Amino acid sequence: MENAPARVSAYHPGEVLRALRTDRLWTLAELSKHTGLTISTLSKVETGRMALNYDKMMRVATGLNIDIGILFAAPVPQHQAPEKPVLPQIGGRRSVTRAGEGRMIETRNLVQHYPAADLLNKQIVPIVTEVKARSRAEFGDLLRHPGEEYVLVLEGTLELHSELYAPVQLAPGDSIYFDSRMAHGYVAAGEGVCRILMVCSTVDWGANTASEEDQDRGSVQLQVVRAG
Predict the structure, then answer these.
(1) CATH number assigned to the domain covering 14-80
(2) What confidence tier does 210 reach under pLDDT thresholds 50, 70, 90?
């Protein structure tokens, strides 16, 4: 039986970002001040010429004081969006994402599929990612954002680069847990497809994020678990 056609397509939250910014009567310069992203970057995002990776989406969400899930929704005025993440008072919520569903954002180095994109106020953000960069130089600037991160290799070989540790290669079934404030980057080692599951925490949303040019390194930790 043939596989069902994929229902996921590339998504650019620029329209939502522009709606949120204009609802606050902010200029791009004011948004830049709140998020630490350059005016040029924000302009390209709003016009669909640049995609946001998780690092930059976290900065936007923190700067606007919104849940990151708002960026995956239809454009809404600010007064209709929660001003800050509020944990639900009653447990039991859930979100099912079928194969081929969800939001997908493709950047120069990563193709990131966001399951459970409809669920707001998540304490963790799962991301299924295909790593495209084949070298550290091709990946470019390392990423850094508040919280902690768990990465499990699903397919291929991942080479994780970070500012305080030597590069480490991980095979399918291997995983790594680290402090996301430590600058890090992903490289696909070998010729095959490299797919990973990233799980990022959102517990540090209230912390101030630094600019692109000057970020606080903070304390770091890293733990690697090999497949048995």
Answers:
(1) 1.10.260.40
(2) very low
Under 8 Å between Cβ of 190 and 156: yes
Strands, E assignment, 94-170: 103-106, 110-114, 124-131, 148-155, 157-162, 168-170
Q: Which amino acid is at 47?
A: T
- In this prediction the pTM is 0.71
From 85, 124, 81, 127, select the one nearest 103 (Cα to Cα): 127
The conformation of residue 90, written as its DSSP 8-state character, comes to: S
Q: E strands, 168-215, where?
A: 168-170, 175-179, 184-189, 194-201
Q: Quick count: other Cβ atoms within 10 Å of Cβ 190?
A: 13
Residue 191's pLDDT band (cuts 50, 70, 90): confident
Q: Where are the domains of the chain?
A: 14-80, 103-225
Work out the pLDDT band at 192, boundaries 50, 70, 90.
very high
**CATH classification number, 103-225, choose in 3.30.390.50, 3.40.1190.20, 2.60.120.10, 2.60.370.10:** 2.60.120.10
Q: What share of the chain is helix, strand, coil (3-state, %, to 5)?
A: 20, 25, 55
Give per-residue pLDDT as tens, 119-177: 888 889 999 999 999 999 999 999 998 899 999 999 999 999 999 999 999 999 999 99
